[in-house]
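Intended use. Records such as the Polysaccharide deacetylase entry shown here are meant for training and evaluating sequence-to-structure methods. They are not intended to support clinical decisions.
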Amino acid sequence: MKLLPAALLSACCVTGAAHAQEYLPILQYHHVDASTPRSTSVSPEEFKQHMDYLKEAGYQVLDLATALQSIRSDQPLPDKAVAITFDDAYLNIYENGFPILKEHGFPFTVFINTGPIERGHRSFLTWSQMEEMQKSGGVFANHTVSHPYMLRLEEGETVDQWEQRIQQEVSDVESLLSSKLGSTPKMIAYPYGESNEVVRNLIRDQDMVGFGQQSGVVSKDSDFANLPRFPAAGPYAELSSLKVKLRAKPMPLNAIENGGDFANEQPVKMTLTLKEGRYRKYDLNCYVAGQGKASLNWVDDNVVVVEAERAFPVGRGRINCTMPDQSGRHYYWFSNVWIRTASEQRYVTD
């Protein structure tokens, strides 16, 4: 994992920080453009508003890989620590986002799919642009070669062949990052946020860190093969929404039982076990995508069963849970994503 020099790390983690925190909210962007699909885009004006707010409000924007290593080794982060990420290697990140990041002196990570880069696609970054961005805090990480649905079999493919293909999708990018840019942070963002235990074990075996697309805050208790991030584009681009996420804390959980990665024709449910402590647990609220509030059944003082009213449609569905802390200024946050498959999609569900 690429590390900052000790003096720089010390500066980034102490300067302007009156307190320390043991968790990290991570922002996720894709396009920085007003003409690209709204669901995955922020306009340059919105992105500047976000970055201006981080600066003005005293947030400490950290290098992602270094911050994660600090969390795993019990080293405190500065108060108001945050990291910035982008998925996909879109040219508009360089054209519209990078000048703003550079002006503010913010480090950032871009998860790149190398297929279109190697083909010279005009809407994607070039290696020379990435080298330029590296000099101003840019780090480039793995988003596979072809951005596939990683859990789907190709026509006529066996499970063994699928596993070999996925390993190749990951290893080819790692090799290119090392040869073209000099190093790899050994991090991957799963395309569409989809992974299963086979894929996560592959990532663990390679000593990599993996990211999904569920929302939440990273702490030492997180699964470092499937870390959460907060989307900050499209319907989540409003500054008021961003402020709530930046103040979020990790839900204090001892255990999660969610029935696995896949949903079926039955409504999903999960059992959450809170750590011992004083919480406003009866202010816990959970929301099911497309359905509204989930039902909550408290089994005892620390165990709650969260259940959707209806089955998810085919695709990805989620439940987001939040609970105010004692001060009322922050929310504990947890999200879980399930995949409901269709037979023609040929998902590997074991």
